[in-house]
UniProtKB/TrEMBL annotation:
Keyword Transmembrane helix annotated: yes
Transmembrane annotation, as ranges: 6-25, 32-51, 71-89, 110-133, 139-160, 172-191, 197-214, 226-242
Record's protein name: ZIP family metal transporter
Swiss-Prot/TrEMBL keywords: Membrane, Transmembrane, Transmembrane helix
Length: 243
């Protein structure tokens, strides 16, 4: 495929950051069935499409990193790192909000922590942008499936970041995420990562996706719709398995 094809998914994901939080029908408690369903789709993609792809790429990683024991499982280590990084950030934000609530009566993380949090998601977005560029080398269906899963995942992230950071996210955060996404995609024109590094990036993103979905679904106060999550996962799983 020509390298202009993936610009359309990039534009779609950018528009989600611009307008995602304006979809008021998705807000509120109990959690929207559409958000829970979107989470199910994202997780189904990671387990049934992304991880099997990473398993195939493990051979390239083993050739690049010769070693024994845990050194032979870099792909899964990177997925664990991705999950752990975003779990740590989420815990830090939640604790900071509670502390600010007790001190100032306002559940809003400090500005410094906001920039750290948004910066981490900026890196995350840049990696996804680069992956979109590399997806042009494969079948169009591969690019489409990844784009759909990431679009729904971005909607979940937007609502989570909006809830944590409120006006700061609307005023600054979403712009940074859009710039990071476009920058990551554009980097593909000037920097060609080895297949090994692409596999490791995919693995890190996969771990991040799982954590970022589950952290939005699990809190009891969200009153999430398990049936919607399960239905979204099942339907997308059926689609992936049929292709």
């Amino acid at each position: 495929m020509e390298h202009y094809v993936s610009i359309w998914p990039v534009l779609l994901l950018a528009l989600i950051h611009f307008y995602g939080t304006r979809l008021r029908f998705l807000a509120g408690v109990p959690r929207s069935v559409w958000l829970s369903g979107a989470g199910g789709v994202s997780v189904a993609y990671v387990f049934l499409h992304l991880f099997p792809e990473l398993n195939e790429g493990q051979e390239h990683v083993e050739q690049a990193f010769v070693g024994e024991g845990f050194l032979r499982h870099h792909v899964y280590i990177m997925a664990l790192i991705g999950l752990s990084v975003f779990y740590g950030l989420e815990r830090k934000i939640v604790i900071a909000k509670k502390e600010e609530q007790e001190k100032k009566g306002e559940a809003k993380p400090p500005a410094g922590l906001f920039w750290v949090h948004i910066g981490s998601f900026g890196i995350y977005n840049a990696l996804i942008g680069y992956i979109l560029f590399t997806r042009e080398e494969g079948p169009l269906t591969q690019l489409m499936l990844f784009s759909i899963a990431m679009a729904l995942h971005f909607i979940l992230n937007d609502f989570g970041l909006q809830e944590h950071h409120q006006e700061r996210y609307r005023k600054y955060g979403r712009w940074l995420l859009v710039l990071a996404l476009v920058a990551g995609w554009s980097t593909g024109y000037v920097v060609e990562l080895s297949h090994t590094l692409v596999v490791l990036v995919l693995s890190f993103v996969g771990g991040g996706v799982i954590l970022n979905v589950l952290k939005e679904e699990l809190p009891e106060e969200r009153k999430s719709r398990y049936w919607a999550f399960a239905l979204g996962a099942f339907l997308y799983a059926m689609l992936l398995l049929s292709l």
